[in-house]
Each structure stands twice: as C-alpha cells, then as structure tokens.
Amino acid sequence: MEVFEFILKVLAIISLVCLLLGLPLMLLWNWLMPMIFGLPTLTFWQAVGINFLASILFGKTTTTSKK
Questions:
Q1: Whose C-alpha in 8, 18, 23, 33 is 20 to 30 A from the C-alpha of 45?
Q2: How many CB atoms lie within 10 A of CB 43?
Q3: In angstroms, rounded to a whole number, what is the distance separating the alpha carbons of residues 4 and 17?
Q4: pLDDT value at residue 9
C-alpha cells in the first residue's frame, strides 16, 4: 500500500505544479503573443496543455555514462 500512496502523492504534486505554471504561461502569452505576432489568446486549460506538451518535448533527460 505504501507504493500506491507514494505514486498518488507524486501525481498530485505533478498536477499541482502543472496548474501553478499554467497561470503565468497564460498571462505572459496573452500579454505578448497577440500584440507581437497576432496570435490568438489562450485559456487557462490551453496554457496548461502547452506547458505539459513543452515538458514532454523539451523536458530534462538524463543519461548516465560510466567511464
């Protein structure tokens, strides 16, 4: 049961971080992008989705090599 609780806690923390990072992304996007590039504004959930997609595409990858 401890492993299941740990996984739930990790998923809850990841979800919270995604939600907290979605708001600044939305505000910055809606402030800059429509004015500079003529792009449409984003909703909060679109910003959370873009943040999640960017973390998949550009997330930190680790490789270990022993010499």
A1: 8
A2: 11
A3: 20
A4: 92
Quote the number of domains for the chain: 1
Nearest CA to 50 out of 28, 22, 23, 24 is that of 22
Structural domain that includes position 9: 2-53
62, part of any domain: no
| 60 within some domain | no
Q: Give dist(CA 58, CA 19) in Å, integer.
A: 18
Beta carbons of 21 and 59 less than 8 angstroms apart: no
pLDDT, tens digit (0-9, with 9 covering 90-100), for 2-49: 888 999 999 898 888 878 888 999 999 999 999 999 999 999 999 988
User: Are 42 and 64 in contact, with CB atoms under 8 Å apart?
Assistant: no
